[in-house]
Amino acid sequence: MGGYILKRTLFAIPTLIGVTIGIFLMVRLLPGDIIDILFGGDLSASEEVKDRAREQLGLNGSYPEQYWRWISGVVQGDFGFSLRNTEPVSAVILDALPITLELMILALLIAVLVGVPLGVLSAVKRDSAHDYAARVGGLVGVSIPSFWLATLFLLFTSRALGWVPPLNYISPLDDPIGNLSQFILPSLSISVFTMAIVMRMVRATMLEVLGQDYVRTARAKGVDRRTVISKHALRNALIPVITIVGFEIGILIGGAAIVEIIFGLPGIGYVLLQAIFGRDYPVIQAATLLIAFIFIFANLLVDVLYGVVDPRISQE
Amino acid sequence: MSTSGNFEAPLVPEGGPTDLRTETWTSAPMSRRDRLGKWRNPIGIVGGGIVLFNLLVAVLGPQIWRLDPNALDYLRFESPSWAHPMGTDELGRDTLARIIHGAQVSLQVGLIAVTIAFIGGVLFGLLAGYYKGIVDGALMRIVDVMFALPGIILAIVIAGLLGPNRRNAMIAIGIVILPAFARVVRGAVLEVMGFPFTESARALGASGRWIMWKHVIPNITAPLLVLVTVYLSVAILAEAALSFLGLGTQPPEASWGGMLSVARTYVEIAPWMSIFPGAAIMIVVLGFNFLGDGLRDILDPRLGPHVGGASDKK
Questions:
Q1: Which of B301, B152, B143, B297 is CA-nearest to residue B229?
Q2: Residues 6+ apart with CB under 8 A from B168
Q3: ipTM confidence score
Q4: Beta strands in chain B (DSSP E)
Q5: Which of A147, A164, A206 to mutate against chain B (most B CBs within 10 Å)?
Q6: Inter-CA distances, A215 with A40, A129, A198, Å
């Protein structure tokens, strides 16, 4: 098992390095010289001033030199300084991280807690009205844009309940209930897509498992239907779902980024978008890298978990 | 007749829509009834209908509903009426006319973005699958790195860095979905290359280009068709998201995402401004998803009712 975890971790490292190179090149190769954009129409800026700015941003020297400077800072947690306010980028990012993580975790919880039972029900009562509704619902769920859903939720709560979630970010440490009431609508809006995927996946794997010989054997030797479904079938049906959850992390981060803006939550997506409009390159690099890191780490975790629940995988 | 759940997160890598193996398309001869029977696929037909309707709206809509989507009027925030079936917005513009214009925008972005991804992906995939070795390794590492970033985040960053406008949004979306095409084509090519008939062709002295044209490409058209349909929905959704964030189609031009973004401010006094564009996005995306689902059932019998599309077991 330890060897398996080590192997998986080692596999993730080249991807991580590749991602840092990709982000580094993306910011530099896309058209538009950063320095020219920063100085905008300021024609009075002399070459000297520009050179100094270049040096401050670490944009002097060859690409390999620049990359090395940047990456050695990143490894030590130094992402440089934001161009808009002189705050260190690491501080900006660290403030935003917990908000995005909370959104994602809540959304994932909702998606799994609702999606799994619906999927099981759909498989067990195959071709019933419920099954058909769930299948169509699953396709509808992956087609609703989360940002529209968020708007609809806001419209609904304000019309029907006369309630609007608080607009300023509330830390869970100050006021856990207030924090939760603020996060529930955004998490719900981004969970629907994942919920639909999980439901469809559980339904499909459940149907397959229910057709297996060991399920029939269990039924034949007199185990009652409910136990067969919950003990024998569901456990095996859930294994592939773990993989799907890993992929879904990416969708959730993307969804969180957009929904954060609607609800005014200063998470990583919010920070990233502000940085893009403000051409704040150090922040863009750092936020993108952090998102990639979360995604890769989540997938690593999923791989390991997969090995734990299905020992066949880790013994390969 | 199966409509079982094989749809997965579009921007999701391995498995899912990208795992469309070719081996089963060379299926055994079927009776005429069976062959026709599998085309009776309600979800696919509904999806096809929605897609067709969307096309008609985009092409004929402006001829039928002749209001200018950008014409200002003093009738601001009119609720839906006969004169304005979907109401008017904060500048008195007709929402229905703007929805119709938005249909053209979303279709244009979807088609161009998918074309970029298709051409690039097929080229990459053919090269990687055919030459294997170093070419394959290098191309697939690039694909891996692109998959390590959530699609919409990558699209936001590329579109943002290129500069916020529709052309750049199309390029960004095209780049983001390109790896999915590359991966499917590569997988299919590797598979076809392993078939005995390809080996015989090579033994008979066929050139690489001949094998590609005569053997590989005909064998990957079916998965590509499904992929194109599914990724059209992804591209349309991504365009709406980018425009919503101000990184796609720029105002005053009408786009569904842009309309939703403005409508957010007025959601209390003019809910129709939010409801119609959002519903339009959902219905069109749903249409392409339904159609993709149906096509997959029809073209890929491996995912029959019993397998239920559990495609991702590694």
A1: B297
A2: B158, B159, B162
A3: 0.85
A4: none
A5: A147
A6: 69, 24, 22
Rounded to a whole number of angstroms, the distance between the first and last alpha carbons of chain B is 26
Bond into B85 cis (ω within 30): no
Of A147, A152, A193, the CB nearest to B241: A147
**pLDDT tens-digit readout, B284-313:** 999 998 898 888 877 765 443 332 333 333
Q: How far is CA B168 from CA A211, B174, B236, B245, B250, in A?
A: 49, 10, 14, 14, 11
b/e sequence B113-137, b meaning 16+ C-beta within 10 Å: bbebbbebbbebbbbbbbeeeeebe
Q: Alpha-carbon distance B282 to B285, whole Å?
A: 5
Which pLDDT score is estimated for B20?
46
* Tokens 């031009």 sit on residue: B253
Q: Which residues of A touch B281 (CB under 8 A)?
A: 145, 148
Residue with tokens 């440490």: A173
Decide if A154 contacts A185 (C-beta within 8 A): yes
| Helix-helix angle B166-193:B151-162, to 10 degrees | 130
pLDDT tens figures, B254-285: 889 888 888 888 877 878 888 889 899 999 99
Other beta carbons less than 10 A from residue A305's beta carbon: 15
As beta bridge partners, residue B88 has B94
- Tokens 């979907």 belong to residue: B86
**pLDDT tens column, B230-248:** 899 999 999 999 999 988 8
Q: Name the β-bridge partners of B94.
A: B88
Collect the ranges in chain B with pLDDT lower than 70: 1-39, 300-314
Task: Name the 3-class secondary structure at B286.
Answer: helix
List CB contacts (< 8 A) between B273 and chain A. none
d(CA B259, CA B188): 41
Report the pLDDT value the prediction gives residue B172, as an integer from 0 to 100.
92
**CA neighbor of A279 nearest in space, from A22, A32, A80, A23:** A32
The confidence score (pLDDT) of residue B21 equals 45
Token pair recorded at residue A159: 């019309």
Return the percentage of chain A with pLDDT > 90, whole number. Answer: 6
Q: Measuring CA to CA, which residue among B177, B194, B213 is closest to residue B17?
A: B177
Q: What is the pTM of this model?
A: 0.83
- Give the other-Cβ count within 10 Å of A280's Cβ: 23
Closest CA to A116 of A226, A36, A205: A205
Residue whose C-alpha is closest to residue B79's, from B302, B306, B270? B270
Given a cut of 50, whether residue A184 has pLDDT beyond it is yes
A-B contacts (CB, under 8 Å): 198
Distance from CA of B131 to the nearest CA of A (A): 22
| Cβ contacts of B240 on chain A, cutoff 8 Å | 145
A50-80 burial: b if 16+ Cβ within 10 Å, else e? beebbeebebeeeeeebbeebeebbeeeebb
B262 at A interface, C-beta within 8 A = no
In angstroms, what CA-CA distances link B265 with A175, B25, B90, B278?
A: 28, 51, 10, 15
Q: How far apart are CA B310 and CA A119, in angstroms?
A: 13
Task: Tokens 């440089």: give the residue.
Answer: A80
Phi–psi pair at A234, nearest 5 degrees: -60, -45
Task: Please report, for residues A117, A128, B12, the alpha-carbon distance to residue A124 in angstroms, rounded to integers and kept in the order given.
Answer: 10, 9, 27
Give the side-chain half-sphere CA count within 13 A for A226.
Answer: 0
Q: Is the peptide bond before B80 cis (omega within 30 degrees of 0)?
A: no
Nearest to A145 among B6, B14, B237 (CB): B237
